Amino acid sequence: MRHVQGGLICGHELLTCLGQVWPTHRFVGVHAHLVHRYLGITAGVAVLLFAGRLLRAAPSHRALRRLAIALGTGVVAQVALGFWTILSSRRLEVVNTHSTLAALLLLGLVSAYWLMAPSRPPPIPVAKVSDGGPKLGVESGVPKTGSTVVAVR
Predict the structure, then answer these.
(1) I need a surface site. Which of 48, 69, 143, 152 has the fewest CB within 10 A?
(2) Is 50 helix (H, G, I), strand (E, B) or coil?
(3) What is the pLDDT of residue 150?
(4) What are phi and psi of 71, to 5 degrees?
(5) Mean pLDDT throughout 26-52?
(6) Which of 71, 49, 18 shows the shortest CA–CA distance to 9?
């Protein structure tokens, strides 16, 4: 947003820009600002839905419950910081806090994925192939097309 001078292009309007939902202005900053807002709203709703689903799906998992509550609270705080950014005419500390919270929300989503991911299955044991026996996928020392040959020492 800062690079296309779109931060304050809409003034102090919160849900519209220049009195319209999508202005016909040709200045790229207007559209960058609105795309930022609309994607932020979409992402916020998605994270809130995810946090709600997480709360219902893992009632006994303490870490996931805390993370879901933190994600929901973080989204509400992010929206408040976004409004504050506009109303404070982009005060540096507000903008930095808004950006930092976005990174923390992303970290929270990655953490939720990591906590919910099933444990990895144990590796499949590979038996040794005797020198005289048949070798999987190999005829006359030439691998078959589309086959995988695993060398075991």
Answers:
(1) 152
(2) helix
(3) 56
(4) -65, -45
(5) 89
(6) 18
Length of the chain: 153
How does residue 30 score in pLDDT terms, banded at 50, 70 and 90? Answer: confident
Measured distance between the N- and C-terminal CA atoms of the chain, rounded to whole angstroms = 57
Q: Which secondary structure element, helix H or strand E, spans residue 115, and what is its range?
A: helix 92-116
Dihedrals phi, psi of 152, to nearest 5 degrees: -120, 130
Say what angle helices 28-57 and 92-116 make with each other, to 10 degrees. 40
CA 49 distance to own-chain centroid: 14
Residue 132 backbone phi and psi in degrees, to 5: -90, -15
Q: How far apart are CA 25 and CA 13, in angstroms?
A: 16
Nearest Cα residue to 49 out of 112, 117, 118: 112
CA gap 32, 22 in Å, rounded:
11
Residue 145 scores a pLDDT above 70: no
User: Residue 138 gets which letter from DSSP?
Assistant: E
Report helix, strand or coil for 122: coil
Q: Could you tell me the CA-to-CA distances from 5 to 9, 13, 19, 33, 138 in Å, in that order? A: 7, 16, 19, 9, 63
- With tokens 């097309």, the residue in question is 145
Distance in angstroms (rounded) separating the CA atoms of residues 64 and 141: 53
